[in-house]
Specification:
single chain, mainly beta, 72% strand
Length: 144
């Protein structure tokens, strides 16, 4: 059975609109959390915070590990935007980053990360402590 070019064009348009409407359903929110980190080559971090999404606040917990050149201890207060989510639980997942930085008493951090569900974090932070790092970090966020 042959289909007409008009019918194929219409079918392609319906598929394209469906794909775009799925992407259009994704939403964004804001996120704030504090992370405590200690490292001597291998480091660990943990903390908690709040995700604000569609007018509601959701508590979150943070856990992480890092490896590479890392020394010291610090606390970083992050805030920023989370995008490409359809529900609050989409923020839960593992985020990875490669980076470097340092703080001697006070410093700044800027980071963009994506998890396996496509949630994107765009964060800025202020770091307090004494730390130098050039490492690979993994961060797990859990929406409670």
């Amino acid at each position: 059975m042959m289909t007409s070019p008009s019918l194929r064009t219409l079918a392609a348009a319906v598929v394209a609109v469906g794909a775009l409407s799925g992407a259009a359903l994704a939403d964004s929110g804001t996120i704030r959390f504090s992370v405590f980190k200690a490292a001597f080559f291998v480091g660990g971090s943990g903390g908690d915070g709040t995700l604000t999404f569609k007018g509601r606040n959701y508590p979150i917990s943070i856990a992480g590990v890092s490896g590479g050149l890392a020394f010291g201890a610090s606390k970083t207060n992050f805030k920023g935007r989370v995008s490409n989510i359809r529900r609050a639980q989409d923020v839960s997942g593992v985020y990875a980053a490669v980076g470097g930085g340092g703080a001697a008493i006070k410093g700044a951090q800027v980071i963009v990360m994506t998890n396996e569900k496509g949630a994107r974090l765009e964060l800025t932070g202020t770091q307090v402590g004494l730390q130098v790092n050039a490492d690979i970090s993994g961060l797990a966020i859990t929406v409670k």
